[in-house]
Amino acid sequence: MKRRSLALSSLAAAALVALGTSAAQAQTKWDLAAAYPATNFHTENLVQFASDVDKATGGKLKITVHANAALFKAPEIKRAVQGGQAQMGEILLANFQNEWQIFGVDGIPFLADSYDASRKLYAAQKPFLEKKLAEQGMILLYSVAWPPQGIYTKKPLASAADLKGVKWRAYSPATARIAELVGAQPVTVQAAEFSQALATGVVESTMTSGATGVDSKLFEHLKFYYDTQAWLPKNAVLINKKAFDALDKPTQDAVLKAGADAEARGWTTSQKVNTDTIAKLKANGMEVTPPPAALKADMAKVGDTMLKEWLDKAGPEGKALVDNFRK
C-alpha cells in the first residue's frame, strides 16, 4: 500500500512538472527597446501598454520595457526590431529621415504647429509609414506626438542672428539642418547623454520640447525657453512582423487593442505634459516667453527653406503627402 502511495505521489509530481513546463512553453516573452527615461510620458505609456497586454492575455504575452536606451541606443532600435533582436521598439521617426524622407515630415518647422495639425499630418503620413515598414518586416502599432518644440538658450535671443556660432544640440537630420541655416554649430547628442553634454559645455542650446526640458533638467544649465511651437515630432512603436505573426489570433487582437488605447492615451497625455512641463520650467527659474517677432520671422523662413528641400528629396510621395495634409 505504501509503495502504491509513493508511486501515485510520483505520478502526481510528474504531472505537475509537465503542467508547469507546458505553461512555461505557452508564455511568450518580448523585449521592447525604448530610448527615453522611465519617467518620460512616452515610456510610462509603454509600461501601461505592456501591463494591458499582460492582463488581456492572462499572462500569455509578457512584454518587458527597457527604458533609457538600456537595451539599444536610439539610432539602433529600428534595426534591432527589423532584425528580430528585439520584438518591439519605440523610435523617433524624424531620426530616420536620411533613410527615407517621409519618416521626417513631422520635423519640418511650422508645417504642423499644433496638436490638431499634427494629428492631420499623421493621418496623411500613416499609409506611407505602414507600407514602408511592412516592406521592412515591421508593423506600425501606434504613434504619439511629443509636445511642441521650442528653443532653449543660455543667452537671450532677439533674432536668429544671435544663434550664430552657438553649439546647438542636434538629435535628427532636421534639427541639424536648422542649426546650419541659422549659423549655429550642430552637435549630435541623444537624449540619454544630453545632461552630461550640457554640464561639460559640449552643447549650449537646443530645440526640443518642454517634456525633454524637464527630463534633462535643462533649467540647471540654460536660462531661456522660446515657445516657438515649431513642430510636434512623433514617436512610433514598431513590432517585428515575424514575432507578431507567431502569436495566436486572440493575443494579436489584445496587442492591437492595447496599442490603439496607448495611442489615444498618449496624445491626451502629451497635451497635458506640454502644459505641466512648461509650468515646471518656469517654477525652476527658466524664462519662458513667446519668440520675439524677428526670431519668429527668421524661423518661419527656415521652415519654408526646409519644406522646399524636403519636397525636392521626397519626390512624388512627399508631394502627395503634403497635398493631402493641406486639403
Automatic annotation (TrEMBL):
Protein name, UniProt field: TRAP transporter substrate-binding protein
Signal peptide: 1-26
The organism's place on the tree of life at top rank: Bacteria
Entry-linked InterPro entries: DctP_fam (IPR018389), TRAP_DctP_sf (IPR038404)
Keywords: Signal
PANTHER family linked to this entry: PTHR33376, SIALIC ACID-BINDING PERIPLASMIC PROTEIN SIAP (PTHR33376:SF4)
